[in-house]
Amino acid sequence: MTATLRLSLLSYPYHASKHTGRGHDRYVAELVDNTISECADVALTVMDPGFAKNTLWGLLKLPEQAVGLLRSEADVYHAISPMGGAPAALLGRRPLVVTVHDLVPFNIAGYESGFKHLLARQCVRICLRLADAIIVPYQVTKDELVSRLHAEPGKIHVVNYGVDHASYFARPDVARAERTILYVGAVSRSKGVEVLIRAFAKVKAGVPDAKLVIGGKSTVDQPMLESLGQSLGVTGLSFAGFIAESALADHYAKATVMVFPSHYGFGLSTLEAMACGTPVVGVAALDAPEFFADAGILAEPDNAEDLAECLIRVLTSSELQREQSEKSLARAASFSWARTARENVAVCAAVARRARG
């Protein structure tokens, strides 16, 4: 079939990869793969600056990104982040679609540099003003953009994230480890790991043989978090380090419960665990309640005691484990990267048609 839509995907400041442990990198990689496989009428080009480990590295890649944008030609541009969308908009690359994943820089302070959040907030505002369409993963994000930043409702489209069901699925042949809690994500305070360790100390008081496995890349917070566990006298706590993509499904399938106490709301590891039929405990922060619906057990944010109670409920009840496993599978079944790609392309195609008149 002849390609009819020239779509340029701007991944800056992220990198299309399933192996960095970063959710936004995974998002880009899945979007690329599934656009190619699902949308035969799209000629896709990807402007990928490569991996940047922090904000400074990302900023150093901006000149290269700008040159690439000025040389590019497309029917429509899709920036997967406001940090990439703002430069594209200011350089006149139109029509332009921008994905706004969340409004963390407007809601959470104290975990990232103030400069990074200031820059992110300004990029969101520029994109709301200059982009032709905005994609968000949740209705709650759209509602906040409209109410707080006065965005045009008709300009914002809700397209959910997806999950790779070929990699993450129920494995009845894999025995679940007894009373094992799994966390997968950045080992940082912003992701609620400090609260999790304090909660686990309380879990141990009620479930002495409970275990907590913390998997994820180390951050500057990890030494402090390890010291916290030691000062609380917690046993059964292990830091597994970065878990490779090839080993993730096995970890999810063996865990009694997955926990994700992030101040930032939803995380892709949560959805992957649910696709494996693993019960999930999260916190009622930002977009998490909308994502979980009734499929997860939500604790109050920053409340170690409430988080501990939720975890104890799951660890000590085989009936609740079965019930939450079924809910996890049912909820995860409604998400797929193929649908994410098709719906993203539909928004981009509509914008391109309007631009052509």
Output the keywords.
alpha/beta, 15 helices, single chain, six-stranded parallel sheet, 357 residues, globular, 2 domains, Rossmann fold
- Tell me roughly what share of residues is in helical segments: 40-55%
Number of domains: 2
The secondary-structure element order is EHEHHEHEHHEHEEHEHEHEHEHEHHH
Number of strands: 12
Which spans of ≥5 residues are poorly predicted at pLDDT below 50?
Answer: none
Largest β sheet strand count, sense and barrel closure: 6 strands, parallel
Q: How large is the share of residues in beta strands?
A: 5-15%
- CATH top level class name of the largest domain: Alpha Beta
Shape: globular
CATH superfamily of the largest domain: Glycogen Phosphorylase B
CATH topology of the largest domain: Rossmann fold
How far apart are the first and last residues' alpha carbons, in Å?
24 Å
Read across the widest sheet, the strand sequence of neighbours is 2-1-3-4-5-6
Q: Estimate the mean pLDDT confidence.
A: 93
- C-alpha Rg, in Å? 21 Å
Total helical segments: 15
CATH architecture of the largest domain: 3-Layer(aba) Sandwich
Secondary structural class = alpha/beta
